[in-house]
Structure formats: C-alpha cells, structure tokens
Amino acid sequence: MSETTRDPEPQRTPSTAGTGATATDNGLLRTLDWKGAFWIASGVPALVLFSIGSIAATVGAPSPLVWTVSIIFGLLQSFIWAEIAGLFPSKSGGASVYGAMAWVRYAKPVAPLSVWCNWLAWSPVLTVGSGLAAGYVLTALFPAEATINTWSMTLLPLGFIQDDLEIRLNAQFVIAALFLLLVFALQHGGILRAARVQTVIGLAVLVPLLVVGVVPLITGDIVATNFQPFVPLSGAWDASGWTLFAGGLFLAAWSAYAFETSICYTAEFKNPGRDTVRAILSAGIACLVIYTLVPFAFQGVLGVDRLTQDDIVDGNGVGQAMTVLVGGGPVIANLLIVMLVLALLLTIMTTMAGSSRTLYQGSRDGWLPRFLSRTNQHGAPTRAMWTDLVFNLVLLLLSDYVFVLATSTVCYMIFNFLNLNAGWMHRVDNPDAPRPYRAPTALIAVGTVLAFVNALLLGWGANVWGGGALATGLIAAAIVVPVFYYRHKVVDKGVFPASFSEDLPAENGADGAVELPRRAGVRPYLVLAGGVVVVIIGQLLAAAGS
C-alpha cells in the first residue's frame, strides 16, 4: 500500500521552561513515568461498581465468576497492548491508535473504525460515572421521596429504540454536569498535574475497595449458601443460562479490560520503552485483585437477592451496601459515600485523559476531523476534551445508563477484536521494528483466540441488555466511515499527515509515496470475514437461549 504524507497543520510547541519536561513535536510533553500512568489508570478498579449490580441481577450466583474470567481475559490481552504500544513512542491515544497502523495497509476504513470504537467505548464512562456520583450525592443529602429526587422533565421519548428510554432533564443531570466541568478544569492543566491529583484520590479509593474485598474474608462474614445453587438465574446451565453468562462477560469486559488506558500516554512518557509495559502490567495486577475480591465479597455477604434489588442495580445503593460489608454506622456510611464519589471522579478523570488523547491522535494521523489536533500551553488536548464534554452532556440526558453502557460495549468489543489481531499483523509486517517489550509468541496466539471469543460475546451477549443494544452500537460505529472519507478525501486530498507513518519502518516508492510493507497476504481479510461469522454464530446462540 502506498500513501503520500505531508506535514500536519502547524502547531504551537508548548513552553517547557522551568518544568523539567521534554517538548515533543506533537504538542504533548514528556513529563510522565509509569507510576504516574498507573495512578491515572487507578480509576479503572472502581469501574466494577458501575455494573456489579446489573451483572448480578442478570447472571445470578455465578456473577463473581464472570468478573474473574473477564479480568483474566484482560490480563492476557494486555501483553499484546504492551508490545504494540512500544512500536509507537511518538503517538498517544492508546491501543486503538497503534492497532490502526496494522489495518490501514489492508483496509482503510477499518483503521479509523478501531480508533472511533475505542473512543465511543471509553467516552461514556464520563456519563455513567458522573451520573452515579450525582445519584450518590442526592440520595445522601435528600430523602428518596424529596422533590429534587423525583422531579424529571421528558424532552423526547425514545421507546422505539429501547423500552422506557427517553431524553430527560432532572437534578441528577445538573449535578453530573457540574462534576464533568470540575474534571475538565483539572485536566486542562496537563497530564502531570492530573496525575498528581489522581495519586491522592487514588489512594483514597483503592484502599477502601481493598478493605471491602478483604474484611469479610477476615471476619468470616462470607456465607457459602449465597453462592448456591451455582447456576444462572434461568435455573440451569442450559442454553438460556449460558446466554445470561455470555451477557455478563460481555458487559464486564467494558470494565475489566479497561486498564489498557494506562498506555494512552506513550508520547508523554519520559521513557516509553520502559514505562509502557510497567504501566499496563501494574494497572492490570491492581484490577485483578479488586475485580476478583470485591464481587466475591459483595455476593458472599449480601447474597443474590440483595444484589438484584433496584438500588444496587442502578448503583445508588452501593454505598449503603459497602457499609454492611465492613460494618459501621451512619458515620462510616457517609464516609463511604464520599469515597465512592471520589472513586467516580477518579474514573472520570482517567477517562477524559485517555479518550481525549484517542481523539487527538486520531486527528493527527488523519482519521478524524483536523480541529481535534490542538493542545494548549500545558500540553492538554483541549479541543478533544471539549468534544468529550459536549458529547457526554448529551448522553447524560438519557434515562437509562445501562443501555448506554451496553451500546458502548458493542463498540469496545469491535475495537478489541481488531486490535488483538493487530498484534500478529505487526509481527508479520514489521518484524524488524524496534520492540522495547516483546510479548511471548504464545500470548500473541492466545490474544488472537481471545479476539474471536470477544466477537462471539458481542453476538451472544449484547442483546441480553436490551434488544436494540447491538444494532445501536453497530450504527454508532459506522458513523466514522463517512467522517474519515471526508477528512481524507476532501480535507487532506487523499494525503495522510506526516505523523501517520512515524515510528514504523517505511520505504519510498518510485513516485515518492510512503510505502508500508504488506506481508500478511489475505489473512487480514480472512480474519474480518471470520469475525463476522463468529458474531452471527453468537446471535444464533442468543436466539436459542432466549
């Protein structure tokens, strides 16, 4: 594949006087080490609180197993993310950006699809997290029957997409919007300041989560009968039961795989080769502990019946439930509410930092609109951050956050499928490219298998969360195709920016075009066709279990 490139739109290089930072030619600053990236990603363990009730209410007694299997999948996949991130020390934005460079030489629209789906999967964390935080504040300060908690104005019914779905305005929206503006202000000062703030908040969040997971084991409050009978809510491990379990794995992936956000900052690492692998593996180990212990403790102490009640499913009763786990009165309950709000603010900060850099790098590489490729004097991609903010203010108006989460997970599974295959594609096409970290070949093979497992879960489990989830997610993903072609054909006149091919070995063709080697033959096309077939098989299994 031959593509010409040109210099990107001129950008102001941020001043680094007095900061000790290293300036890069992409507007970002090399101020971060792996420990900073770990603390930025420390909001990911709290994502277990987003859907712990929803998954328990859907799967039943095996729900802790769902979380354990899902985080193991995520850890196995992380070795591929670490390797391909090391290939691109000058790019930010995460695994989707690195994987896009494997796919563009075979199918142009697939490359921006990877980047776009990753952003669509991550960005709604801002909506769900701020909405839950607002809900915690309202339930802590006002009785459930208070007017501020019950008032709601319907702006547009959306029942044709999902039952009871609507665009509405209420107090939760107002408070959540204020939380988003607060996080935006903190991120505006650059990644180093954000990392310092998140180090403090992260300690205040990870410790309580660890306490919640460990204390019931020490006190002996885990009740074995709360795991019996160990069958899905359908009553047996039949077609319906396995469909529910697949639905749980599908939704849990959105949280359990998410520590890959720790490699969104490669272009801001002081030492990309060393920091990338340390950041993602340390974040993965932290998530392994939390995602295994917390769901087990919740169910072992509370039981399935409590976890399936409305206040746990919608997240607003999680604080009170945590008080039961550790033992305590109203003071402890209020302290946990404060910590939960901090946990959710931490996840919002993690997400805004990572997802905005995905938009930013996608713009620099020619996938997304050009206006997103700007940074401020602190090296923060503010235009991408504003895009994140406005998009999520719209999503906050939706009445069903679980549907938002399920729809974004559809996009996340598409991204995971494409990028896990990008691991072996980069091995084939760029065998001699410098690799600061080289994953064991066996794990590259395991990741490829997991790509198809994720495709199966996409077809099998998505509509467990609503009949319109899969279709809505696929439509949202497809939006990027015309956006990309407008940027590439109309704005850039068919010429990729210079940053498109940086970091990878390339050759100049006879016409002066940049040529990225293609050695994989027809295998990438067979992978795409196989992915579609596996999704269809998943749909057939879901139909059999409905």
UniProtKB/TrEMBL annotation:
<keyword id="KW-0812">Transmembrane</keyword>
<keyword id="KW-0472">Membrane</keyword>
<feature type="transmembrane region" description="Helical">
    <location>
        <begin position="279"/>
        <end position="298"/>
    </location>
</feature>
<feature type="transmembrane region" description="Helical">
    <location>
        <begin position="393"/>
        <end position="417"/>
    </location>
</feature>
<feature type="transmembrane region" description="Helical">
    <location>
        <begin position="199"/>
        <end position="219"/>
    </location>
</feature>
<keyword id="KW-1133">Transmembrane helix</keyword>
<feature type="transmembrane region" description="Helical">
    <location>
        <begin position="525"/>
        <end position="544"/>
    </location>
</feature>
<feature type="transmembrane region" description="Helical">
    <location>
        <begin position="437"/>
        <end position="457"/>
    </location>
</feature>
<feature type="transmembrane region" description="Helical">
    <location>
        <begin position="119"/>
        <end position="142"/>
    </location>
</feature>
<dbReference type="InterPro" id="IPR002293">
    <property type="entry name" value="AA/rel_permease1"/>
</dbReference>
<dbReference type="Pfam" id="PF13520">
    <property type="entry name" value="AA_permease_2"/>
</dbReference>
<protein>
    <submittedName>
        <fullName>APC family permease</fullName>
    </submittedName>
</protein>
<feature type="transmembrane region" description="Helical">
    <location>
        <begin position="239"/>
        <end position="259"/>
    </location>
</feature>
<feature type="transmembrane region" description="Helical">
    <location>
        <begin position="169"/>
        <end position="187"/>
    </location>
</feature>
<keyword id="KW-1003">Cell membrane</keyword>
<feature type="transmembrane region" description="Helical">
    <location>
        <begin position="64"/>
        <end position="82"/>
    </location>
</feature>
<feature type="transmembrane region" description="Helical">
    <location>
        <begin position="464"/>
        <end position="486"/>
    </location>
</feature>
<dbReference type="InterPro" id="IPR050367">
    <property type="entry name" value="APC_superfamily"/>
</dbReference>
<feature type="transmembrane region" description="Helical">
    <location>
        <begin position="36"/>
        <end position="57"/>
    </location>
</feature>
<feature type="region of interest" description="Disordered">
    <location>
        <begin position="1"/>
        <end position="24"/>
    </location>
</feature>
<feature type="compositionally biased region" description="Basic and acidic residues">
    <location>
        <begin position="1"/>
        <end position="10"/>
    </location>
</feature>
<feature type="transmembrane region" description="Helical">
    <location>
        <begin position="331"/>
        <end position="354"/>
    </location>
</feature>
